[in-house]
Amino acid sequence: MERRVTLITGASVGLGLAIARRMLDKTEDHLILTARASSLSRFEKENLHESERIWLRPLDVTSEHERKLVIWEAVEKLGGVDVLINNAGISYRAVTEHVRDEERNYQMAVNYNGPIALSRLVLPTMRAKRYGRIVQISSAGGFMAMPTMGVYTASKFALEGATEALYYEVRPFGIKVSLVLPGFINSDGFERVVLTGQSNLAFDDPTDPYHPHYRYMSDFIGKIMKRAIATPDSVARTVVRTVNARYPKLRVPGTLDMRFLWMMRRYLPSRLYHEILYQMLPGIRHWNKRQAALINNDPGRASARGQLPP
CA 167, CA 105: separation in Å to the nearest integer? Predict the structure, then answer.
């Protein structure tokens, strides 16, 4: 077939950038590399420039106008998008009690609504060609949850469910759909996790009941990511192999630890699985002790009367 057209979201940094470089090296595809308008300058710093083979386009995946604009241009000038790699994402760190509606909605808009809306836009030309590849970048949060990451996990659970349905829907048209699930990656990605307004206050306030949750989980995740064997480039290799596979799987583990976690979730009895993970939480013995100490010092804290989240 003619040169494929591949669109990658969130391509100016991290895993998205690594995927772009791998696609340039291992394929002959015409690449549409996208990022928020404010991040486009990063491409120049990474020595990626517009050329016969590369388009650089602004794309905020939460913007319906920008989504339609970039897909319309690809259809009009290139015949459509043949490979869609939905990589752009955001991660809020907060316990459920510390997430406001606007923060929850934005998390879902970036990690779920955007990828599914883009998938919908590229499907007509893929069906007409009877060829297409859609790869959603998920994570361990797509099938397991961790405290302080509930709203992020919800967005990935939603993405996984919708993508599984899409896998069945478009398979008769020759379109292959996959989820690549990275685990812990040795990168500075954990530093880009966003605290909500309330979680930021609790993180800095030792008297907050949830302070141990943030303190211990943040240290734990940071240490694991710094020690991880997987890198953005190693995960990018998996993504490119998935794109080029004749019969790609629906779910593709992106790292070795992901394979281990997936096996745990699949084969351990549910009650045992959850108990093991709970006992493995960093500093778990201190989480409830802090709350008990606060109530003992201030019995008024034990009353829920009149207490509603701000």
Answer: 25
